[in-house]
Design goal:
Elements (H helix, E strand, L loop, with lengths): L1 H17 L29 E2 L2 E2 L9 E4 L15 E10 L5 E7 L4 H12 L2 E3 L1 E3 L2 E3 L1 E10 L2
Length: 146
């Protein structure tokens, strides 16, 4: 029986050594100390959301409270549309809105409808700390019908 036990121990030992154990950690994620994670921190350059920089202690931009949709003008009803416009919305610290068209639609009527809708939008002004400041955001409106 001792010979059998020796063989059994050898077989078990070889099995443990030769059969790979399943890996539970991702390759390269061998951090054992808090300081090992410092290299995982990415520092990104300044990020823009709709053209507004994300600055420390500053709200991202004006916050829209009411955003009515633009209407398709009667002259284009029933027409298949796939058109878009891009506009910059300037919001003063008093929450007054000014719309500047950056790229108009191919159909002038859609651009007019989009600007009219954007002028009806209401905003909370951009904040820098506790103070309201002038802000802006870029909006893209896509007119699409089937």
């Amino acid at each position: 029986m001792s010979r059998f036990r020796r063989r059994l121990v050898i077989y078990i030992g070889l099995t443990v050594l030769l059969v790979p154990a399943p890996a539970f950690a991702v390759v390269g994620d061998d951090a054992t100390h808090e300081s090992d994670h410092q290299e995982d921190v990415l520092e990104l350059p300044e990020v823009h959301v709709h053209g507004v920089p994300l600055n420390k202690n500053q709200q991202l931009g004006p916050v829209a409270k009411n955003t009515p949709w633009p209407a398709v003008p009667p002259s284009l009803e029933g027409t298949a549309l796939d058109d878009w416009m891009k506009a910059r919305v300037l919001v003063t610290k008093d929450a007054k809105v000014t719309v500047v068209v950056l790229e108009p639609c191919k159909h002038r009527e859609l651009t007019v409808s989009g600007v009219a809708a954007l002028k009806r939008w209401t905003f909370d002004p951009q904040m820098k700390g506790d103070d309201p400041v002038d802000g802006e955001l870029t909006v893209r409106i896509h007119f699409h019908t089937r």
